[in-house]
Amino acid sequence: MTIAPAKLSDPAVRAFVAAVNAQDEDAFFALLTEDATMSDDGSDRDLADWTDREIFSSHGHIEVQRESADGRALVANYRNDTWGEMRTAWRFTVSEDGRISRFETGQA
Q1: Residue whose C-alpha is closest to residue 70's, from 86, 93, 52, 54
Q2: pTM of the model
Q3: What is the tens place of the pLDDT at every residue in 30-70?
Q4: DSSP character string of 87-98
Q5: CB 46 within 8 A of CB 52
Q6: Which residues are bridge partners to 18 per DSSP?
Q7: How far from 60 is each of 28, 54, 69, 72, 96, CA to CA, in Å?
Q8: Would you call 18 helix, strand, or coil by DSSP?
């Protein structure tokens, strides 16, 4: 059973998942701090390049299976046109202003 994005506990994470699933790049980048960073499978990546390749140009979609850490950690089925579907883990660091300063993802 999946958790609808609107039901996710953390507002920033909720908006992140909604922006990814809507393919809304403007909303996505508005959620991030100016110096936001990310990693994939334990390796830091260039955020703009990675999000273009893994989310927006390949039609990424997140179906959340469970959340923890007050909504800042997710296990989800992630799919895109490049890799198909895989079980993934996501962890988010949210700044005091409510924007995401870092996210980490990788296979769960």
Answers
A1: 93
A2: 0.96
A3: 999 999 999 999 999 999 999 999 999 999 999 999 999 99
A4: EEEEEEEE-TTS
A5: no
A6: none
A7: 12, 7, 24, 19, 28
A8: helix
